Amino acid sequence: MASVVPVAYQGNLSASVPDWLNKGDNAWQMVAATLVGLQSMPGLVILYGSIVKKKWAVNSAFMALYAFAAVLLCWVCWGYKMSFGDELLPFWGKGGPALGQSFLIRQARVPESTQYYHDGSVETAVVAPFYPMASLVYYQAVFAAITLILLAGSLLGRMNIRAWMVFVPLWLTFSYTVGAFSVWGGGFLFHWGVMDYAGGYVIHVSSGIAGLTAAYWVGPRLKKDRVSFPPNNVLLALAGVGLLWMGWAGFNGGDPYAANLTSSLAVLNTNICTATSLLVWVCLDVIFFKKPSMIGAVQGIITGLVCITPGAGLVQGWAAIVMGVLSGSIPWFTMMVIHKRWTLLQKIDDTLGVFHTHAVAGIVGGISTGLFAHPDLCTLFLPVTNSRGAIYGGSGGVQVLKQIAGALFIAAWNVVMTSIICLLIRSVIPLRMTEEQLVVGDDAVHGEEAYALWGDGETYDSSKHGWNSDDTLHQKGIYPALAQV
């Protein structure tokens, strides 16, 4: 993404379509923002509500719903300027409101103090999208929102909802904005030349690392839930991930801030990589587990989407296929083999494996971008004009090192800041639900359940209806017998 700063428009504001506004780019930016928003609402809400055990369907969906709303409000009040405003520190912007100043356009420019290398060569690219600031504020808002929702996938099935309500604005403010400014908003990683086309680092590495860290501090689910956690609706989960896949056209296609060559290439590469990743993951399931798994296919889709994101508009189609092979195999190996043998990962309960599907896949994508980024495509987009993938020679080998260093910074910052946030919240609000809530689930936490299993006038029959996938709760006497209505 570009480093952009607001510039007041001095021309005629009376016209509904001023001369400076590019209607095509503005229309695509709003469509792209809507597609990204649909990935969360309803995409991830549906996916989370259906891929978990039945007793956690409402709670999981609600965590996503709350995060989407809370982030949008925090974003326009202070988060956007902290990510894309004037520099406060080399890795952080000054906070301030961005409440839809429609008469401000977005002009990308490079601060004079950091514009040139010592040899005088311009390192940072320049881009000038011509549409209202409000379009870009909303586009970036849905990116920030989906990051928190992805993080939530590591915490499903046991985090205290009140603690989550506090966690969301704190993590957005002190973690997400740092990554966004450092890589996209004109911070030190941007000017150093770390390439992250659409959020492989800012969104996926940060959510995967922060999710794993928060899962450590919150603690695991009940032992029984860790052993048996069947999805309550596999087909609905597929619908949710389908919205995620199709919405990724806006996720990657909107990042040039224009309907241009790289936006088209980014959309095509996204689908190529994702399809390849899905097929590789499913084939590995068949080879080693003898059966293709729908949930495995969902994981393969997500890792493919994540892996291509750092380089979607910077690599050629053949590289997108290679990245799909890597994203369908490396996260599969870390999830299915390394996770089961590494004691530390076994102790941390990452509910949906967000560390593997987002952090690992994001790092693989970032390093692959350092390998395969085409020099001509780099000049069409940002973050750099003098960069190229390692396979194209020149300074390409240095680019790989930059990509690794960028991933390490994002990971380290998220480990430290997420730990501080969790410890701070824990001093005031318990991070985990109570034991009764952990056993009962949605009804104890929200007073609601996802499925009504009997109708008016019926007598509850435990042989036909069940609150959960077993009768443990009835054996423990947690629910009294229901009288006939």
From TrEMBL:
Residues covered by the Ammonium transporter AmtB-like domain: 27-451
Keyword Transmembrane annotated: yes
Ranges that cross the membrane: 27-49, 61-81, 137-156, 168-192, 198-219, 231-251, 257-282, 294-312, 318-338, 359-384, 404-425
Source organism (scientific name): Kingdonia uniflora
Xref: SUPFAM superfamilies: Ammonium transporter
Gene3D superfamilies tied to this protein: Ammonium transporter AmtB like domains
GO cellular component: plasma membrane
Official protein name in the record: Ammonium transporter
Keywords, alphabetical: Ammonia transport, Membrane, Transmembrane, Transmembrane helix, Transport
GO molecular-function terms, A-Z: ammonium channel activity
Subcellular location: Cell membrane; Membrane
Family assignment from sequence similarity: Belongs to the ammonia transporter channel (TC 1.A.11.2) family.
Family annotation (InterPro entries): Ammonium/urea_transptr (IPR029020), Ammonium_transpt (IPR001905), Ammonium_transpt_CS (IPR018047), NH4_transpt_AmtB-like_dom (IPR024041), RhesusRHD (IPR002229)
Origin superkingdom: Eukaryota
Pfam families noted in UniProt: Ammonium_transp
